[in-house]
Automatic annotation (TrEMBL), chains A, B:
Top-level taxon of the source organism: Bacteria
Biological pathway: Purine metabolism; IMP biosynthesis via de novo pathway; 5-amino-1-(5-phospho-D-ribosyl)imidazole from N(2)-formyl-N(1)-(5-phospho-D-ribosyl)glycinamide: step 1/2
Lipid biosynthesis as UniProt keyword: no
InterPro entries with a match to the protein in the record: PurS, PurS-like_sf
Family affiliation: Belongs to the PurS family.
Protein name per UniProt: Phosphoribosylformylglycinamidine synthase subunit PurS
Assembly mode: Part of the FGAM synthase complex composed of 1 PurL, 1 PurQ and 2 PurS subunits.
Pfam families the UniProt entry points to: PurS
GO molecular function annotation: ATP binding; phosphoribosylformylglycinamidine synthase activity
Length: 83, 83
């Protein structure tokens, strides 16, 4: 069992309305000193084998999970213990 | 400048329709061997000082960012270089 964690974040300069909403709520709740909030996605994929895993994950990120025009992605691949 | 990364994931057993949709799309695109897909959130908070930071982040997660009934959260606090 292979565990892949994909982190998808908006590129710098791309507006993040969800982050701005959270920032506004934090100010309304009385939290001070928060300069910026950015929201991204965390996608966990479980593979049953490690065959060409890096190539597959790279392709899946580019084709389906991220929009490379406005988003960056990084991923970690962990070889888990079989269940 | 303090960088806080909050990872929010659905608890085990909680249905994840977004993850199921991605899983379906991956099968349609011809990717085999994917057993499970779970989608979570990645929230990056930038603080201007480290005053009571852990206490604040814990409270913010519990009160605003996560729904503790169905979601788990973890966070990392990084002391960045001041800009």
């Amino acid at each position: 069992m292979i565990n892949v964690n994909v982190h998808i974040t908006l590129k710098e300069g791309v507006l993040d309305p969800e982050g701005k909403a959270i920032e506004g709520s934090l100010h309304n709740l009385g939290y001070e000193g928060i300069e910026d909030v950015r929201v991204g996605k965390l996608i966990n994929l479980t593979f049953d084998n490690s065959d060409r895993i890096e190539e597959k994950v790279e392709e899946i990120c580019r084709k389906l999970l991220a929009n490379p025009v406005i988003e960056n992605y990084t991923y970690t691949i962990e070889d888990g213990v079989a269940k």
